[in-house]
Amino acid sequence: MILQELYRYYQRKNEEGELPPPGFEKKEIHYTIVIDNKGNFVRFESNIYKEGDEEKVRTFLVPASIKRSSNIAANLLWDNISYVLGESSPGEKEDPKRLKQQKNEFYKRVEECLEQTKEKSLAAVLAFAQVNKKTYTSDPLWKEIINRKTGANLSFKLHGEKELVCAKKTIINYVIKSLESSHSEGELYTCLISGEKTEIAEIHPAIKGVYGGQPTGTNIVSFNLSAFESYGKKRSYNAPVGKYAAFAYTSALNSLLAKDSTQKLQVGGSTVVFWSEKKTEFENEFASFFEFKDADKNLENKVLESRALVSLRKLLESPQRGKMGTPEKEMKFFVLALAPNAGRLAIRFWYQASIAEVENNLRQYFLDLQTVHPPYLSEVLPLRTLLRSTAVAGKDENIHPLMATGLFSAILSNKPFPRVVLSSVVERIRAEPSASYEFEYSRAALIKAYINRLVRARQYNTKLLEDKMDETNTSIAYRLGRLFAVLEYLQARAIGNPNASIRDRYYAAASSRPAVVFPILLNLANHHISKIGWGDKLIEDILMVFPAENPFPRSMTLEEQGLFAVGYYQQKQVLYAKKVENEGGKDE
What we know:
4-stranded mixed β-sheet, 42% helix, 20 helices
């Protein structure tokens, strides 16, 4: 199913002219060797440019790269300096014999192509192989090329022409014809993707661009040990995929994973790619719902919003704008999460639904997250901020490995969040009493969304949590959180900023073993109330639903600790908003 949809995506993008034809790929070519029609060296051209502080390299359409490890195998009409010029790359031990073999292999392929195509520019490339080395080592760019630490890809262009030699129509037709003719050389099998009888790809092209994966690329389909084989089948014949289909699905996936791709997200340790059945506006907007960037801070107009907020507002308003049920909304949308795993890629999750369903689920997710917050914080919480709020020290590397993709999958399918979300957030709140306001907000929003999803799924019996403090919520756990916020506020008003507040000292125990802590805190609060003359009525209102006998539970479940945290946070927002409003006066 996954490979079939990627295969279809390739066909769609190929028709739109955005993906290369069979046997080709878009590759970074760092430098172009410009020659005349007799093979004389003219100059080197750099394809490296700066975008801000980041170095980027132009990509060109070139014949697909050869998969190689330690063996000698050359790409057609482009490669690194070892193959094109017979020069060792920086950091490599120079081996003159091997360098000569690599260069010979490169120009041998050019010669074979010339014999088949009679393309005149190839004769010029072959002639360049015989030029004196001094003709190009004196070029101003030579030192930059030979000393480039990450190595450089080179290709050829005739002087006065715009396209690379390898992108000429005769070369493209030659590569495609070579690919098609190879299909009939071996035994034919039924391709699992296309359903056609064809020759099977023994080794699939590598997938590159997955976070944490090998720089040389990894495979989704591979059988690198005999333990994975069965029925006497060797290697990829255990999952027969035709050569064209293998090229198509890997080209599609590599384009989605490309550096400049707008159709990928980093979610924890997984790389997520997404696409729609046909070209849609939603395909370009999807990433903005999870990765928000601030508007240009240099602009004076503070009303300007980021693309994310614009997309989100449009999403939330769409039911009222009558856009549901249109042909675009009924199109399928696909989301694939990948992560490196030993010798191949692991599929973390695969999701497909109509765009209308995805929009509905995203809308519900943002509604679930909505909760009261300080006015200077954004109304929209990026997914990365939410995930960091669950991790030790707020660092990406400390995010629970199962949480990120589990949470993302639950968002897309509108299902309850994984339990690890709640346990991680509750643990962070208890361990970090003095967290930043942004993390306090993020954690409260996550818990609220977690609880409400459980309630709607009928997996937990309590009242749905509101965006703001709910005085009608009679949950003991929720009210205990409110009570704790009031007691902390009374302490701050009575004695200013203590070295260690009751939150620093008692939050963990109050949220898990209320019966032990709250009698002590209420006795302490009496002194604070007598000093500032306020608070007793509010405490009475909160406690009115508690049983007269044994009012405080001996222990609380993880879900109850979550309710406690939301009650505490929402009550705190009310109290400190009231303090700002009455600044300079006395609370009533």
